[in-house]
Amino acid sequence: MKAAVIVFPGSNCDRDMAVALRAAGADVQMVWHKDAGLPDGVDLVAVPGGFSFGDYLRCGAIAAQSPVCQAVVAHVERGGYALGVCNGFQVLTETGLLPGALMRNAGLKFVCKTQGLRVETSASDFTAGYNAGDVVQFPIAHHDGNYFADAEVLAALRDQDRIAFSYDGNPNGSQADIAGILSENRRVLGMMPHPERAVDTAHGGTDGQAMFRGLVGMLANA
Amino acid sequence: MKARVHVMLKTGVLDPQGEAVRHSLGAMGFEGVGAVRQGKIIELDLADGTTEATVAEMCEKLLANTVIESYQIEMVA
User: Within chain B, which residues score under 50 in pLDDT?
Assistant: First the structure.
């Protein structure tokens, strides 16, 4: 199973993402933002956390216009899988691959802590390793994680069972406590919390392993 | 020629930064500040003949996120 991790100037969770994917058995290649294409045969594209382009203009806005992002959009349109974490989630909303936007945290503070998350659905290849209703502990570290979408989009996310994770105690003002959402075809997941920082006992928790093992295992057998 | 683009959060989208500024003004003793909305102004130096439609395209594609923001274009000679 082949995965690509996109690297922008200012990405800082790219290597953590690669380590987490490799530990789950993926063959990982790093892809620089100026590359016009993805490596052949990529099953999963991971857009990592960080502060791409210094968060200038809006978080993820400049990154979303980079050449590689057009390749990511094409990959998703072909039915490929994509995972965006933290800044990666912001990038995916800016490309339009996921609905809504991430705004400044309601409390205006950068929030950095371990956060309880409720698994809202196990009906996706990202969350199949959990049971709906499970509470998992993932680190969060963001200034702009306040999820906003209009009432129509929120209703669609609920009706189509596309809320993947919600906060157990809202840390940032996100609507409907949303921490992560799925695309309509359930092959794109964007989330503010960091599953890749919870895959090794040295991280202080391993609740993220089920996501990477499940996803890599499924794609390896596909 | 120049264009000035004003980007503001849409009405109905809570502006946490504007709200913090309003709080602070109240704490400083300025009375009667009902609401504060914070936005940004982007000034563009443009080649002569650039149309407002082109600037609007820039706004739609990059300068504003129309999920949460609205924009106004001011063409300056």
Answer: none
Give the pLDDT band (50/70/90) at residue A20.
Answer: very high
B39 close to B70: Cβ distance less than 8 angstroms: no
List CB contacts of A85: < 8 A, sequence separation 6 or more.
A13, A17, A46, A47, A48, A49, A190, A191, A192, A193, A194, A195, A196
Which CATH number is A2-220 given?
Answer: 3.40.50.880
Residues of the domain holding B53: 2-76
Read off the CATH number of the domain in which B19 is found. 3.30.1280.10
The ipTM, to two decimals, is 0.87
Which pLDDT tens digit goes with each residue over A74-113?
A: 999 999 999 999 999 999 999 999 999 999 999 999 999 9
Record: contact B14-A106, CB cut-off 8 A? yes
Chain B residues touching residue A173 (CB < 8 angstroms)? 14, 16
Nearest 10 degrees: CA dihedral of A116, A89, A141, A110?
Answer: -110
From its phi and psi, is residue A51 left (phi > 0), alpha (psi between -120 and 50) or beta? beta
Copy the structure tokens of residue A190: 């964007």
- Please give the Cα distance from A53 to A60 (Å, whole number): 8
Strand, coil or helix: A85: strand
Spatial CA neighbour of A33 closest among A2, A71, A61, A3: A71
**CA distance to partner chain B, nearest, from residue A202 (Å):** 36
Assess whether A196 carries a catalytic annotation.
Answer: yes
